[in-house]
Amino acid sequence: MTWTFPSATCPYTITRAAGFLGVPLKLDVSVPAAQWVRLATEVGVIVRAADPGAKVIIYGHVADGNLHVNVVPAAEADGRHEDAVFGLVASLGGSISAEHGIGALKARWLPLIRSEAERALFSRIRSAFDPAGILNPHVLPRETYS
C-alpha cells in the first residue's frame, strides 16, 4: 500500500511547489512560541505591502517557533522581501535564522537581532579561532560584525 498523504504534505514537496510559481526566496526564521500565530498570520500581509504581487507560502515547526517563509517575488528581489520578513521577525523578538545560520546572505540584517556589542564579540571570538581569516572567509565577513 502506498501512503500518498504524508508524501504530499512533506516540507520538501511544499518547497518544490513554490518553485512552480517562480524562483522562491527561502527564508528560515523563528519567533518565541507565543508569537508564532502572529508571525504566520501577518507575514503575508507584510510581504505583499512591499510587493503586492508576491506569493507567500509558509510552513513550519510549531513546537519550536520556526517558520519557513517562501516568497515568490513579483517585483525585483532587491532585499525588500527580506526587509519585510526580517523586520517583522525582529519586532516579535525572533531570529532571522532558525536552522541554517546567518551566513553571507543574511549578514546585512544581523543588526536587526544583534547589538553592536554582540557583533563585536562575535568578531573577537572568530578572530581568536581564525586569526588569518581563512576558515569560511565569506561567511559573515568580519566587517559585518562591527
Give the helices and strands, then pairings.
Elements lengths: L3 H6 L1 H11 L3 E6 L5 H15 L4 E7 L4 E7 L7 H12 L24 H14 L17
Helix pairs in contact: 3-4
Question: Would you mind describing this structure in some detail?
Answer:
This protein is of the alpha+beta class and 146 residues long. Helices cover 40% and strands 14% of the residues. Strands 1-3-2 form a three-stranded antiparallel sheet, with helices on both faces. α3 (36-50) packs antiparallel against α4 (80-91). The model is unreliable at 1-7 (pLDDT under 50).
Keyphrases for this structure?
146 residues; alpha+beta; 3-stranded antiparallel β-sheet; 3 strands; 40% helix; globular; disordered N terminus
Describe the structure in brief:
The chain is of the alpha+beta class. It has helices at residues 4-9, 11-21, 36-50, 80-91, 116-129, and strands spanning 25-30, 55-61, 66-72. Strands 1-3-2 form a three-stranded antiparallel sheet, sandwiched between helices.
Total number of beta strands: 3
Mean pLDDT: 85
Task: Choose one word for the global shape.
Answer: globular
The arrangement of helices and strands along the chain is: HHEHEEHH
Physical arrangement of strands within the biggest beta sheet = 1-3-2
Derived structural class = alpha+beta
Rg over alpha carbons: 17 Å
